[in-house]
Amino acid sequence: SKQELDYPMPSKYRDESRNLEITITAKTKYNKVIYAISDNGIGIEPRHLTKIWDVFFRVDNQLVGEGLGLSLVKRIVDKHKGKAWVESTVGKGSTFFIELPKTIFSE
Fold first, then answer.
1. CB count, 10 Å around CB of 43?
2. Mean pLDDT by 10 residues, the chain (107 residues)
3. Cα separation, 93 vs 26, whole angstroms
4. Rounded distance, CA 58 to CA 12, Å?
5. Residue 32 in contact with residue 97, Cβ under 8 Å?
């Protein structure tokens, strides 16, 4: 279901020429849960795709942030024996994927 948020979203990686859209999905495949978080932002240049997971890496030093967010995501996912990756097209947006073993959610 689609949900509207009633607070402003940060404009750090937005394409100001269009309305911001963020989609979050989850699916089970084999014995894994895969979450996908997609946006229609500015996208990430291919040369940065592997570096964005590094501690303190920032695509643009003019933007707000410390370069910690994605490195923390990667570390947490790794601790749970999962995977994190991104697919992105400059000018169209990005999709971040988090894959975790389904068993970590079982009691």
1. 17
2. 59 78 92 94 92 85 79 95 96 95 69
3. 19
4. 12
5. no
Tokens, residue 88:
């992105």
Beta carbons within 10 angstroms of residue 24's beta carbon: 10
Distance of CA 42 to the CA centre of its chain: 13
DSSP string, 66-95: -S-HHHHHHHHHHHTT-EEEEEEETTTEEE
How many other β-carbons are positioned within 10 Å of the β-carbon of residue 79?
A: 8
All residues at 6 or more sequence positions from 89 whose CB lies less than 8 Å from its CB, including other chains: 43
In degrees and rounded to multiples of 5, residue 41 shows phi and psi of -80, -155
Tokens of 49: 């795709």
pTM of the predicted model as reported, rounded to 2 decimal places = 0.82
Q: Residue 16 has what pLDDT?
A: 81
Nearest to residue 102, comparing CAs of 29, 48, 50?
29
